[in-house]
Amino acid sequence: MITLTRRVHFSEAAALYDDESVNSAPPAVNTMLRAYLYLKTDAAAAVRFLLKNRAHISKTSEASTMELYFAIGYARLNDFEQADRHFDQAADRAMGPNAAFLARVAYERARRYLMERRIEEAWTAYGETLKDRSLRGRVHSEQLKSFIFCREERFDKQAAAMLKAARLMDSRRSDFLEYWYLSVQTLAMIAREMILPQARQYAEKALDDGDPWPPDVAINHFQALKAIGWCKALAGDQLSCFRYLRHAQEVAPDAAWRAMVHLDRGYFARTIGETQWSLNELAQAEEIAEPVEWANCQSEERIALLLFAELFAAVDKEKAAFYIARYNALGKLASPLLHFAHDNRLAALAAYATGVVREANGALDHAHVSYKASWDTFDRIGYEWRAGRAATRLFSLTGSRRWKLSAQHALETYPRAWLWDELKKANPRRSRVRKNDLTPAQATVLGMIRKGMSTHEIAHTLGRSQSTVRNHLKVIFKVYGVRSRVALVAEAARKERVSS
Q1: Model confidence over 36-70: pLDDT tens digits?
Q2: Residues 6 or more apart whose Cβ sits within 8 Å of residue 132
Q3: How far out from the chain centre does Cα 440 lie?
Q4: pLDDT of residue 466
Q5: I want to staple 68 with a disulfide (CB 3.0 to 4.6 A). Which of 28, 90, 224, 310 is the partner?
Q6: Distance of alpha carbon 329 from alpha carbon 447, whole angstroms
Q7: Residue 297's closest CA among 257, 347, 357?
Q8: How deeply is 93 buried, as exposed, middle or buried, from its count of CB atoms within 10 A (0-12, 13-18, 19+)?
Q9: Measured at the alpha carbon of residue 78, what is the angle toward residues 77 and 84, in degrees to the nearest 5?
Q10: How far apart are CA 61 and CA 259, in angstroms?
Q11: How high is the pLDDT of residue 151?
């Protein structure tokens, strides 16, 4: 069991423990190992198991570890009062001045604080982890630092700390496989979003070494491969992009993740003008995702719904709106361990996809709001290519030089990305709605409509027939790209704000 756990074969180790033929009166250390394995997948099951074996374990040298596992389990169940009580008992029951164990308690306590965004207390606990100067202690300290930086949305510093942890593990990687896989995944995913050559190179080399990753970290492997695929696309290397996506598809753990690969392939096929290829990938993704219970998806795989919406916006507006609605119905991520559950990145991704769908359906004012929300977040946290993509959409909607310059500034570090073509092809709607597109009479009618006057009232005020007013209104609708008075008033107000 211990060997399997070290090799990150958690499922096999759990099955071995549960096999009654080798599980006659297991020693305390094996019982605690089984509790540890439960914590990998099911916090509630871990707490139940510990409660069942508490009387036996409390009389052994594993009592302090039992209290620590209780604390971790309750924290993941969001029962922080119980978690804190058990953290204190774990520290109290530590045998002697055990710096390594106390540092481990501090490490887990800090992660518990991060679940409530108690950043200052997490930093205090981080300070306690520094007392363990062993290699394991230093690895934990650096990884903990990266988790805190992530909560602070300082993602470049998160990458630097995680890279340091990964390099510390290189000398004895076999002793740290679980943490090393996490490091590679994290570095690849941050490198996808920011220009961080050292992080990207480390993750890419780790993935290209050819060593198989255990099935229990298939999601980590999948996300790392997919992220490096995006890195290649952003660098203009489409061939390598599709190679990494093919490898990601080979290790995808379930249907939701496999659908994501087809969606990525469909997205990139469209960027190189392969429309039919893109449609084929979209159709395959839909077929694969049909049985997925999205409400049970508690990680990045739910982003597939946003990708569905973005791709369908260009070919089937109703389906695009359906996927956005389906995504919104899921609610917040439940897992307290996922960084996405605690910051604004997921909301920014959803805002961008929502903007694409709203724009496709002609709700331009609402699309503007969505794109702006997405840009605000990505620009603030330094996700430049995503900020540039949102700014391109805003330029297309408004024709504002500000948004064109913002897009150019954000994309300047991605000279070979397809995003530059999108910016060059942007056809600002505002350029088609100039003031002189309306005659003086039509401009007068527009002003009266914005005051809430009816066709009859406008005709009476101007001394014209209602038929003439209706003809003016048809032209105004066409110029502004709307079909109703309500939409016209909203669009006119938006244009006024943009030009002011």
Answers
A1: 999 988 999 999 999 999 998 988 889 999 999 99
A2: 99, 100, 102, 103, 104, 138, 140, 141
A3: 50
A4: 86
A5: 90
A6: 40
A7: 257
A8: middle
A9: 105
A10: 48
A11: 92
C-alpha atoms less than 13 angstroms from C-alpha of 407 in its C-beta half-sphere: 26
Nearest Cα residue to 442 out of 400, 492, 406: 492
Residue 431 confidence (pLDDT): 47
Angle at 367 between CA 361 and CA 371, to 5 degrees: 140
Q: Give the pair of three-digit tokens for residue 430.
A: 């505002």
Q: Quick one: how far is CA 345 from the chain centroid? A: 6
Check: CB of residue 311 under 8 Å from CB of residue 267: yes
Q: What is the DSSP string of 237-272?
A: -HHHHHHHHHHHHHH--SHHHHHHHHHHHHHHHHHT
**Residue matched to tokens 């389990």:** 73
Which 3-state string (H, E, C) describes 12-74? HHHHHHHCHHHCCCCCHHHHHHHHHHHHHHCHHHHHHHHHHHHHHHCCCCCHHHHHHHHHHHH
Residues 6+ apart with CB under 8 A from 243: 229, 232
Helix, strand or coil, per DSSP, at residue 86: helix
What residues have CB less than 8 Å from 150, skipping those under 6 apart?
Answer: 158, 339, 343
Q: Quickly tell me which residue has 């510990």 as its tokens.
A: 50
Length of the chain: 500
Half-sphere exposure of 269 (CA within 13 A, CB side): 17
What letter would DSSP give residue 153?
A: T
Are residues 17 and 23 in contact, defined by beta-carbon separation less than 8 angstroms? Answer: yes
Average pLDDT over residues 163-175: 96
**What's the pTM?**
0.83
pLDDT tier for residue 255 given thresholds of 50, 70 and 90: very high
The three-state secondary structure class of 422 is helix
Bigger pLDDT: 400 vs 240 = 240
What does the DSSP 8-state code read for residue 131?
T
CA atoms within 13 A on the CB side of 79: 14
Helices 197-208/155-169 angle, 10° precision: 40
pLDDT digits (tens, 9 = 90+) for 285-307: 999 999 999 988 878 889 999 99
